[in-house]
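Summary of Year 1 activities. Much of the first year was spent building the evaluation harness for sequence design. The harness presents a backbone, in tokenized form, and records the residue chosen at every position. We chose the following record to illustrate the format because it has been used consistently in internal testing since the harness was completed.
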């Protein structure tokens, strides 16, 4: 019998961020610890918002590494990290995508998941999303038990939302009544998220080039000079 996987909220955020960046900004993946922290603390496409320290992210990475869900890459001047979520959890690619989105964005309807997965994986239709969700909800105890749960319909909502169980049982009432942003803001939020990811990719490229040339990252020299002047 497989032991159920149980993550802390911070571990879930770290793992899902690695899963997201591997698909949305592959040129800057694997991630350094600093890039991973920035991804975890994004202000868009995250529910709930977090302000994690480098120490918290590092501790979560170590726990995930011991669980076989994260790998440390060798080579280069900076340690980087990759995820092993699909194999570590034991699910097909489509299910891993849905779990990653649920860990990042909180409970969502099947239609919302299909829309939010656009840059990760293109599902044919909402029915196919529901099919993978149903499979994860009905996963046998021998395989570790259910990975998601379908929540009760919230007051005034047209569809039921789904939540992941990787952090343990869900407070169904709180999750079902979670408020969401206005529909008109969805496109703006996605655009802001995309720009943040592009900036993160550019930052990673600059850090890599500076490391290869033996230079300090942009802005660091100015900070050092300012500190010397203050002294």
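For this record, the design step produced the sequence shown next.
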């Amino acid at each position: 019998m497989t032991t159920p996987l149980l993550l802390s909220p911070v571990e879930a955020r770290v793992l899902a961020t690695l899963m997201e960046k591997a698909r949305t900004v592959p040129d800057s993946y694997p991630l350094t610890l600093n890039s991973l922290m920035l991804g975890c603390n994004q202000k868009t496409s995250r529910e709930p918002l977090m302000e994690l320290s480098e120490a918290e992210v590092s501790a979560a990475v170590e726990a995930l590494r011991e669980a076989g869900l994260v790998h440390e890459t060798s080579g280069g001047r900076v340690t980087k990290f990759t995820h092993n979520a699909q194999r570590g959890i034991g699910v097909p690619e489509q299910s891993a995508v849905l779990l990653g989105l649920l860990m990042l964005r909180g409970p969502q309807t099947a239609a919302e998941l299909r829309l939010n997965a656009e840059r990760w994986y293109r599902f044919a239709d909402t029915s196919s999303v529901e099919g993978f969700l149903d499979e994860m909800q009905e996963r046998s105890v021998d395989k570790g038990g259910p990975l998601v749960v379908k929540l009760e319909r919230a007051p005034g909502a047209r569809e039921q939302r789904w939540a992941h169980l990787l952090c343990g049982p869900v407070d169904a009432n709180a999750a079902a009544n979670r408020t969401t942003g206005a529909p008109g803001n969805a496109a703006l939020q996605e655009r802001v998220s995309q720009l943040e990811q592009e900036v993160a990719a550019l930052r990673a490229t600059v850090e890599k080039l500076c490391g290869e040339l033996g230079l300090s990252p942009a802005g660091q020299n100015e900070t050092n000079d300012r500190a010397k002047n203050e002294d």
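Residues 179-186, 219-224 have pLDDT under 50 and may be disordered. Quantitative recovery figures across the full test set are reported in Table 2.
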